[in-house]
Amino acid sequence: MNKLPFVVVACAAAAIAGSAAFAQQQSTVPPGVADAAIKAAFPGAPEQFIPRLSQDETMKQCSATRNEPPKAVAEEIQKREKATIEYPADGKFIGDWKKGEALAQSGYGMRFSDYPARRVNGGNCYACHQISKQEVSYGTLGPSLFQYGKLRDFKDAEVKATYEKIYNSHAALPCSNMPRFGSNKVLTIEQIKDAVALLMSPDSPVNKD
Ligand code: HEC
Q1: Based on the number of CB atoms within 10 Å of its own CB, is 155 exposed (0-12), middle (13-18) or buried (19 or more)?
Q2: What structural domains does the chain harbor?
Q3: Which contacts qualify for 142-148: CB closer than 8 Å, 24 or more apart?
Q4: 115-174 pLDDT, tens per residue?
Q5: How far apart are CA 103 and CA 94, in angstroms?
Q6: CA–CA dist 95, 159 (Å, integer)
Q7: 104, exposed or middle or buried, with CB in 10 Å at 0-12, 13-18, 19+?
Q8: Which residue among 22, 158, 169, 199 is best mutated to probe the pocket of ligand 1, counting the most ligand atoms within 8 A of its Cβ?
Q9: Rounded distance, CA 187 to CA 129, Å?
Q10: Which residue puts its alpha carbon closest to atom 12 of ligand 1?
Q11: 125 Cβ closer than 6 Å to some ligand 1 atom
Q12: What percentage of the chain's residues is helix, strand, coil (to nearest 5)?
């Protein structure tokens, strides 16, 4: 099994990440069995892919608490994740919405068939969100982001919060089901600014009727 369809990888990733929105039922699988199955599932994976088969501390804490960490653990996760956020050197959070739309559409990157990288990663945002109205194919795991900026009055504080949410979703919601795009080096700071522009620019199609 050399190539798994992307959807299988995405589902495995989502299962590992867990979700506060979907608190899971108590598992009947003995401890360690799921981890071993995941590790054994990617025999042809390139070296760079392997570390992603092990949970980091945040994932472990979310799994251990079925995505409902007690307050102290939630605060610990948020503090740790927030500390990973790097901010743009020029202090500007808004890039180019057209580039943001392109990366929102692109699911390239992080699959083991994407090593070595042949082009820049995408964010695959439409896999989980409605964004621009022109794109009719989208997933619904995440909330609709249509009119996102308009609904927030394009406020500066919201622009910054959006950058932080995309950079590291777990800083905002401890056991978020959204990938940590900046902290996990899926997207660069410039790309995250472009995604912020897509959501927060008044001239972006997201904020048109
Ligand atoms: C695997 C699914 C998934 C992907 C891919 C994804 N998101 Fe999300 N996103 C979510 C979920 C689920 C939420 C709801 C809250 C949470 O779990 O963090 C969310 C929440 C958000 C929010 C906050 C919405 C609100 O109402 O406060 C923003 C902004 C956002 N996502 C932007 C993006 C952008 C931009 C991308 C692409 C770079 C992206 N998301 C990719 C699942 C995803």
Answers
A1: exposed
A2: 1-209 (1.10.760.10)
A3: 142/177, 142/178, 145/199, 145/206, 146/206, 147/206, 147/207, 148/199, 148/200, 148/206, 148/207
A4: 999 999 999 999 999 999 999 999 999 999 999 999 999 999 999 999 999 999 999 999
A5: 15
A6: 11
A7: buried
A8: 169
A9: 17
A10: 142
A11: yes
A12: 45, 0, 55
Residue 107 CB neighbours (<10 A)? 18
Length of the chain: 209
Whether 129 lines ligand 1, by a CB cut-off of 6 Å, is: yes
Query: Whole-prediction pTM value?
Result: 0.89
For the segment 63-81, what is each residue's pLDDT rounded down to a tens digit?
A: 999 999 999 999 999 999 9
